[in-house]
Backbone:
């Protein structure tokens, strides 16, 4: 079994083959693939592996339109972000990002998964538990191996950085509250009797429960900082983003806006702030 498939480049392909060879395996020994989520750094080599060895590829059903780059879904997603950035008061920065998304829809067509995808279901694999852990993406899953007490976490938990809960639409074009979902997924994993986490990035995590508590506390601290900005009169998500992230706002616009919107959602769900539309723009006030 291969969990995730790296980027589609020769370095990743060679690293996969070298690692298999060092353990006395080859590509033809892979029996199936499971994807933790649809991002290209986790699914990039799928087509290449399947071309060499036509194994089944399993993923969460919400991954399918993303991995297949379904044209209707891609267009819906572009329209979603166009509306979102208008509502968040992003102005020209939002319009530039939407134009980038339109270009990327054409430029990244070659990234689509060509093979048939199979839906992950509970109890599908003996001694391997599939756990839904949305937040970083809507389709993210983790895999728990009880006899080893190992968790393959995708990008839910990373040793050296906090995972980003990226704003995304659901299948109906409605905004998912990604950061609250991410926190719920972290809390869900606190009850898993795991000793080691194999993360999608970085080193093995040997203190997973402690790190989860640290990540949740970090989200709480950042939310409080954003609350103080709201109390100081920064009204829109764009206002908060520019005040807190300054130059990074322009350089990493979509990532910054996901962080800010996520933390404002987190505060709103806890009754700390409320948002009201004024002339089509969502303005926040502390409660």
Residues:
């Amino acid at each position: 079994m291969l969990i995730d498939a790296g980027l589609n480049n020769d370095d990743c392909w060679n690293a996969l083959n070298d690692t298999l060879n060092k353990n006395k395996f080859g590509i033809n020994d892979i029996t199936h693939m499971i994807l933790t989520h649809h991002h290209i750094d986790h699914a990039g080599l799928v087509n290449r592996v399947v071309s060499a060895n036509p194994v089944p590829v399993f993923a969460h059903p919400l991954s399918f339109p993303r991995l297949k780059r379904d044209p209707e879904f891609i267009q819906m997603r572009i329209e979603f972000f166009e509306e979102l950035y208008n509502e968040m008061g992003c102005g020209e920065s939002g319009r530039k990002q939407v134009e980038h998304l339109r270009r990327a829809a054409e430029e990244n067509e070659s990234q689509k998964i060509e093979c048939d995808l199979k839906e992950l279901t509970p109890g599908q694999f003996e001694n391997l538990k599939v756990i839904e852990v949305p937040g970083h993406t809507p389709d993210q899953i983790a895999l728990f191996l009880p006899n080893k007490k190992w968790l393959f976490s995708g990008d839910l938990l990373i040793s050296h950085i906090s995972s980003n809960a990226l704003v995304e639409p659901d299948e109906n074009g409605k905004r998912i509250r990604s950061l609250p979902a991410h926190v719920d997924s972290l809390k869900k994993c606190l009850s898993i009797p795991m000793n080691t986490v194999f993360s999608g990035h970085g080193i093995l995590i040997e203190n997973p429960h402690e790190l989860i508590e640290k990540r949740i506390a970090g989200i709480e601290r950042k939310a409080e900082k954003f609350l103080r900005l709201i109390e100081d009169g920064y009204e829109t998500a764009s206002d908060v983003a520019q005040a807190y992230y300054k130059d990074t706002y322009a350089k990493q616009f979509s990532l910054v806006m996901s962080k800010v919107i996520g933390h404002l959602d987190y505060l709103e769900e806890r009754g700390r702030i409320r948002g009201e539309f004024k002339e089509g723009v969502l303005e926040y006030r502390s409660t």
User: Anything to note?
Assistant: The chain has a mean pLDDT of 97. Residues 69-112+121-286 form a domain with the Metallo-beta-lactamase; Chain A fold (CATH 3.60.15). The first strand starts at residue 2 and ends at 3. The radius of gyration is 20 Å.
